[in-house]
Records
---
Amino acid sequence: MSDIKMRGGGCLCGAVRYSVPSQPIVVAVCHCRDCQKQTGSAFSLVAAFPRSVVSIEGDCASLETTAASGSPVTRSFCCKCGSPLFSETKSGNEAGLVFVKAGTLDETLDLAPTAHVWTASKQAWVQIPDGIYSADRE
C-alpha cells in the first residue's frame, strides 16, 4: 500500500472522478490563447502530477490540437457535462506528467500559482506577482 497522501477531484456533474497526490509538482497559470478559449476566461490554472499515480474513473472525451509551440496538446473533458479536466503536452508526457485543471479539485484552498507561462498572450489587465516564475512561452 502506498504512503502517498491523495486528494480527489472531478467534473461538474460527477460522472468523472479522479485522485491525485495531495501535493502537485507545480501549479501554473497558462495564458495561451488555446487555454483562454477552452476556459472562456483569461487563463487556465493547472496543477502538474506524475501520471503514474493519477487514477481516473468515468468517461472522458479528448481533443488534440497544435499549440502555439507547434507541439500537440490533448485536452480531456467529461463526456456528459463538458468540464475541462486534464491537459497533456509533449514536454509533460516526456516528463511523465499530466496537468489537471486545478478548479476541478475538491480542495483548492492550499493551492497557489508558482508559475505563469505563455505570458506573451496574457490579458493586459492580468497582473503577475513579483517573485513568481514567468515565461513568455511554455
---
Amino acid sequence: MSDARRTDVVLLLVAIVWGSSYLSAQTATSALPVLLVLLARYALSALACLGVLVSGRGPRRWTREELRAGVPLGLTQAAVLVVETYGVAHTSAANAGLIISLTIVLTPLLDRTGHRGGLPPAFYAAAGVCVLAVGLLMAGNGFHAPRLGDLLMLGAAVVRAGHVALVGRLTTGRAIRPMHLTTVQTLVGTALFLPLSAHELPTLAHAGTATWAQLLYLALFCSVFAFLAQTWAVQRTSASRASLLLGTEPIWAAAVGLVLGGEHFTALTGLGAVLMVTGTYWGQSVERAHRGAAPPRAEAHAHLTDEERPKPDDARDTTTPATPTAV
C-alpha cells in the first residue's frame, strides 16, 4: 500500500471512529448517568495521555502558554461535551451526528481568522440549506414541537463553534504542542466532573462489561487514538484532502445509527440528512476557497485537540480541514 493510500485509510478510519462515537455515547448513557459517563471518559483519556507523555522522548513539562490555553479550553470543551452527551441521550445517534455537523458552517461565522472581508453570499446560502436540514431532521414523522435531544444537539453545535473559535484566539502564534494541550484539557475535565459525580462512583464500579467497553472505546479510540491518528495523517497530506475525508464523519454517524443502532429515517429525516451533508460540504468548500484567497498566515488549528480537526502546516494547501463534530 502506498503512503498516500495509507494516509487516506487512516483519515477515513478517524472519521468512522468519530462517527460511531454518538451511538457509543448513547449506549453508555442508557446504563449510567451522563455526568458519570463524562467523568469516566475524561479520566481514562487523561491516564492514556499522561502515559503517552511519560513514555515519549520529548519534554514532558507543560509551558506557561500551554497551561494558559489548556485550562479555559478544557472548560469550554467540557461544556460542549455536557450538552452533546445529554443531547445524544435524548435523540437518535444518526440525528445527533448530522445536527452537530452544523458546526462546520457556524464556526466561520465566529472565527474570522484568515478571512479577508466578509464571507461570500454562497456561504450563507449553504448555511440556509443546513438550517432547513435541521428543521427536517427535527420533524421526524411530521412537523411538531422540537424534541429535547435535537434542541440540545443544536445548542451543542453553537457552543462547539464558539469553542473552536476560542481555540484560534488562544493558540494562534504560540508554540503549543497538541498532545500537551490535550492532556491539560482532559485533566481539567476530570477535575471538573469528579466532584459533580463522585457520589455515583459506586454505580461505575458495578457497571457491566458492555458498558465498560463503551467507555473505553469513547476514551481510547474516539479521543486519544483518533487525535493521534489524525495528527499523524494530516501531516502527510493536503488540508483539502484531509478536510474531504474527515468531513465524511456525519455520513458514518448516520450509517452506524441505522445499521448498528437499529434506527431508521422517515422521508423527512432522510431528506434532511441529504441536505445537511450537501450544505455542510458546500459551505466548507466555499469557506475554504475564500480562506485560500487570503494571504497565507499561521493558523491556530494545527493545535486542535482530540474533539477538533487540526490544520497542518502544509505549504501545498493552506485551507482549513473540517471542523470537529465528534462527541
